[in-house]
Amino acid sequence: MKIKTIKRSSDDYVPVKSTQESQLPRNLNPELHPFERAREYTKALNATKLERMFAQPFVGQFGHGHRDGVYMIAKNYNNLNKLASASGDGVIKYWNMSTRQEYASFRAHYGLVTGLCVTPESLSKNKNENFMLSCGDDKTVKLWSVNNDDFSNVRSDDEVTTQGLIKTFDGEHAFQGLDHHRSKPTFVTGGAQIQLWSTERAKPLSNLSWGADNVTTVKFNQNETDILASTGSDNSIVLYDLRTNSPTQKIVQTMRTNSICWNPMEAFNFVIANEDHNAYYYDMRNMSRALNVFKDHVAAVMDVDFSPTGDEIVTGSYDKTIRIYKTNQGHSREIYHTKRMQHVFQVKYSMDSKYIMSGSDDGNVRMWRSKAWERSNVKSTRERNKLEYDEKLKDRFRHMPEIRRISKHRYVPIVIKKAQEIKNIELNSMKRREMNERRTAKDKPFVPQRKQQIVGTVFKYDEKRRRRNIDDEEEDVDSD
Amino acid sequence: MAKKSKSKSRSKSSKRALNALEIAERELEGSASDDNNETYNPRRNGTVVNLLKKSERRGNNYSDDESDIASDDSFEDEELDSDEAFGPGDDVDLLGSKLSQTARDKKKLGKLGSTDEIDVDNLSDDGYTSIEEGELMSLSEIWDMDSKRTPAPAASVVSKQSNTEEESDDEGDEIKFQDSDIESSEGESGSEESSSEESDADSESEDPFDEISDNDEDVELKTITSNLMKDTAKFTSKRLATYGTGEENEYILPSVQENEGTQKLSLSDMMNIVDDKQITRKATLIQGQNEATAIPLPQRIQQRNERKAAYEISKDEVNRWSDAVKQNRRAEHLSFPLNQKVEHQEASVFTIPVNENTASALQDKVNAVLEESNLMDPEKNTTFEDLDTAKMTPEEMKKRTVEMRLMRELMFREERKARRIKKIKSKAYHRIKKKEIQRNRELAGVSDESDTDLDIARAKERMTLKHKTNSKWAKDMTKHGMTNDAETREEMEEMLRQGERLKAKIQDRNSDEEDERKGLSDIEAEEVDDTKDANMKDRLGKTGVMNMAFMKNAEAREREANLQNISNLRAFENGGELLDSDEEPEKEALDENVQLNKGRRIYAPINLVTKKEAKEADKILKAEVSIDNSTNLANRLMKKSSKINNQDKKSDENDDSEGKSKEPENPWLVGSDDEDISSKNIKRSTKVSVIDKDSSKEAKRTQKIDKKLAKQNKKNSKESNNDDGDILLDSESGNKLNIVDPYGGSDEDLGDGFAFKQQDVIADAFAGDNVVAEFVNEKKRVAEDDDDKEEDVTLPGWGDWAGSGTQQRKKRFIKKVKGVVQKDKRKDKRLQNVIINEKVNKKNIKYQSSAVPFPFENKEQYERSLRMPLGQQWTSRKSHQNLIKPRIMTKPGEVIDPLKAPFK
């Protein structure tokens, strides 16, 4: 027989230090804690409401912005708080993200800056040295050293500066798009041709062109560093491999692609921003179909960027909004907009996946939280636990009607709302018409949504293998 | 026409969908300024983008550009525009793809050249899906074919050179080649140039889907070459005739066979001309392998093959990541940055150097100075000489080692012994051992138990009340007749023994505890010993108190009593009943008195009381035993049978083991236990028993008895029986339905008893219940309850005039109360046997998911995901922490690098 006595020593519950939280004795007897699901549901509901209350996505804008629209933003892959942006008048600004002030501002090109990238840290001698590559419509690629002292006496943006300019590469045509290799001192430029350059040489190393059309953007893979992808004005996406020094695969879509981003965690997947209001997620091993289609925008998607964690993408659109998608979902989880923000041309995730930078037509570079309700302050263990618990509860009960309604509710500009309505009506009518047609024409082939945008691929994929791959992918998606 | 309109409307709606934003803006702003649309965007409109192909793009119907341009106009105008902008039927052009562009060009060309449009249509319809690798024919193949058909005029030595020539001439104009001697001479020098030119031309003319249009080109090429071949067939003969007539020089070889132009020029023919022997010797070496090297594929096709190969390679390369990617996808938690660098603490001004040897120059100097001035304490290292052992003499040393060895040996033995003892499982052994240790301790003067231990033991005794049979548990046990159970009995005995011990302790009788544990045989042996002792005593002498007469008498009495007790116990142990203590009450009383008082008789009321109590206890015990026996079916049956034929009485009485085996035959217990039944081959429900050949003797016997009873009853009641013999229902023998196996052997009188049909029984049981009608009524009532209702809310007299001559107003106020569902809209309207409850609890809807959400496949799965609560109230702290751990964790202020290759 057990003897139960009430014993309460002050040592157990009175904290030793003043900073320590007093321990709360708790009784795990289930009789004292009834209705667990009901209580957890209520907690989840409250957490969802609080999330919407705390949702303040906009952090602020960088300095006073540009004079012209911001058409290029380049992030520093090795540094959290540095960002470069370029505008339509040829001015490049290098920003300190923590203070949101500029390190440097100079006019780099005559006319539009069409490509910008910060060179990798491994190529500079010490950590604080920064180099930057820019290209423009004036048929030049320029290599800059952007240290603070280089631009201490540059005050006017009226003339093209030579300060900080290390090297100029002259090309035969206007450039379009620029990206630097992750580790080697080589870079690729687009334009009338796609060319591979070395920083040591004045002339391009090789010409990778396939077909005669313009190349609008180029992007290196960050994992398999010798692979790159480009988009062309002929609505094509071309893959290249620098090891074999040749283009490898090409697909053509119904509309032009505006931007590409490779998944930093999955070497073979990339996402593209398309003019047809959608972003598409592709596997470079099998491009006969998209892995996923990200819908919801009501105008062309201008830019897309992956979160460094590889589970989310951010898109900026011509409809003046930014949307955030999970890679395994088709619809956005978040939409950002402000009254003054015009067409968004650039969106970039910060390297810690906490913030999003956007550049828009109105000449401002804006900074947003990637999770609108999250705050970056230091939290006590208890607070952190509470937040994590809330997150899990929200996730668990997210299918409940009330919670879903609250968590999905967003105010969007009336223009967007209206456009959504129009688009829905038209899409539905098209769908209906197709169904009617199918009723009479039984042999009409059914094209899945993930293939509709593809006009064709150069190298065909084995039907059997493709099916297997699809199964694999679907399994993966499900497992997520 | 209808088709056209359909496609037009589709293109219109797709256009509207794509331009949704612009349309929305226009509709919303209306009168307001259209400034947003006016903003000219160089990037967006793509004019700046395409510097090289500006002019080309202008003609391109790019939808967005178009809409931008059109956006200045009114909405309706734009619509008109869009309709007119592209001709009917070519919706594909909307998207301005390169393919359609080329197709259009082709079309134009076709129209100009008034060629058949079928070809072009084919192209546009098929796209490039219809092209197959096999259908394509490389240029070289065509040329090969050509060379096979037409007699090649050129010698094989020249063929290589000429081949490059052939390639460089894109259309392969044979005529030109063959008569242009100068050009062929240029072959070597100009080959590089031409190839570079060619590549340029190639890259220029190259189309993204040039491979696709190959088909058509090939077709054209074939026709051209075939045409040419016809021509050349004529030409060659003509020309070769005049070929060798010219002067022989390094470019022109003499024709050997002037008559037969078809014959080939062989190497040997040429060798004949050469005079130099050495050269011919060398040349003969070549003779063996005079085949022409394979003609390289046309560059375009070669490039395509290379690309394909490169694509395969890069796919394979990239495939190496798939494992790592999959692993990350499936990981429950990912903490970024994934593979964090290990940070080594680098030496700096603030870090203290760990290595002492690296002393600075200053330190060295200071040390030197200190040493010079004898201020340094000379720190010696401990050497062997400094150790204690070194100071000892060898004898001492030896002695010490022996000592040490002994100690170690003893310790080892002790350890082994302890291990062995620990292994012994016997409780008796441990008890003895414990006692021994205790005794040793007492001898050593060590208090055997601490006070607290004693206290605890006492408290335990007090709390557990292990020493009495009147505890609740013990009472329960006796009440429910569980005393039969060996275990419980043992436990109760243990209790009593404990009580005895306790009593002894309380009375401070220093009885040896070992007595308690002795078996009967021990006691007997002791008794024998005692007699021996007595004999010994007799022999020893006749003096002393113990030899006095009354002492002897007392002793004898005691012995007698003991013997009596032993015999009683023996009897009990051998299965006999407890001897009735009533039989010899005086003796017992005497016994008791003697035992307690050592020869002195005391008549105390307490003694009587205790005796009474003991009697009562005995009674109770007997009653219990009788109850137990009665519960035994076998016993009961035996009793019954004994009434009828007095036999077999002895065997079953008080036989525990047999009783146990029969216990499950209790009809009230057997009924539910199917397995037991089947194993025993006796099927028994609570009231049905089936007996066949294999059933045990006893069962058969009981069956017989029952039958006899039935017979008697039958005689009494004189009721007829006419049912089939297999199923019998014996109403009077305890309502037992006996299903008797017809093959049951010696059993007779199968036609006994009377039986009912099952259905009749059920019908009887539910007589008077009109279930169906009740159900119908209930359904009707529910339907009415759920239906809309009308309520009359007129207040009599309200709003009326009172008094005589006033007219009663007819107006009535009727309120309609909406019910759950209207009568004729019920779901169970046509279902006769069902009532569907259509009341919806609106408060519950809030907590119901309308459908099973996506990743889950069925309801159960989803519910399972919700089952385990996460909160701290319902789980332990650790599992709570695990449950709430987010899948993706990032460290603030850390750059998250892309995935590193795990295979590099």
Low-confidence stretches of chain B: 32-40, 44-104, 109-135, 149-217, 235-244, 256-260, 510-516, 577-598, 647-691, 719-753
Tally of contiguous helical segments of chain A: 6
Q: How many β strands of chain A by DSSP?
A: 29
Main sheet overview of chain B: 4 strands, mixed
How many angstroms does the end-to-end distance of chain A come to?
51 Å
Query: Structural class, from secondary structure content of chain B?
Result: mainly alpha
Largest sheet of chain A: 5 strands, antiparallel
Work out the helix count of chain B.
41
Quick one: overall form of chain B? flat
Strand line-up across the major sheet of chain B: 2-3-5-4
Number-wise, the strands of chain B total 8
Strand order of the largest sheet of chain A: 14-15-16-17-29
- Ends of chain B: how far apart? 64 Å
Query: What integer is the average pLDDT of chain B?
Result: 64
Helical content class of chain A: 10-25%
**Biggest chain pair interface:** A-B, 118 and 108 residues
Which assembly state applies to the chains in this document?
A: heterodimer
Summed over residues and divided by their number, the pLDDT of chain A gives a mean of 89
Low-confidence residue ranges of chain A: 474-480
In percent, how much strand structure appears in the residues of chain B? under 5%
Task: Describe the 3D structure.
- Chain A has a five-stranded antiparallel beta sheet with strand order 14-15-16-17-29, with no helix packed on it. In chain A, strands 1-28-27-26 form a four-stranded antiparallel beta sheet, with no helix packed on it. In chain A, strands 2-3-4-5 form a four-stranded antiparallel beta sheet, with no helix packed on it.
- Chain A is α+β, with helices and mostly antiparallel strands and 480 residues long.
- Chain A starts with 9 loop residues before the first helix and ends with a helix.
- Chain A has helices spanning 10-13, 36-54, 381-396, 401-408, 414-440, 463-479; strands spanning 58-61, 70-75, 82-87, 91-96, 101-107, 113-118, 131-136, 140-145, 165-170, 175-180, 186-191, 195-198, 206-207, 215-220, 227-232, 236-241, 246-253, 257-262, 269-274, 279-283, 292-294, 301-306, 312-317, 322-326, 332-336, 344-349, 355-360, 365-369, 454-457.
- By secondary structure, chain B is mainly alpha-helical.
- Chain B is built from 41 helices and eight strands.
- In chain B, the strands form three sheets. In chain B, strands 2-3-5-4 form a four-stranded mixed beta sheet. In chain B, strands 1-8 form a two-stranded parallel sheet.
- In chain B, a hairpin with a 5-residue loop joins strand 4 (727-730) and strand 5.
- The longest helix of chain B is centred in the N-terminal third of the chain and has 34 residues, at 210-243.
- In chain B, helix 8 (98-112) runs antiparallel to helix 9, helix 10 runs parallel beside helix 14 and helix 27 (520-540) packs antiparallel against helix 28 (549-573).
- Chain B is flat, with a radius of gyration of 60 Å.
- Classes of the chains: A alpha+beta (480), B mainly alpha (904).
- Chain B: This is U3 small nucleolar RNA-associated protein 14.
- Chain B: Residues 503-521, 646-665, 690-709 have a biased composition (Basic and acidic residues).
- Chain B: One of its GO terms (cellular component) is small-subunit processome.
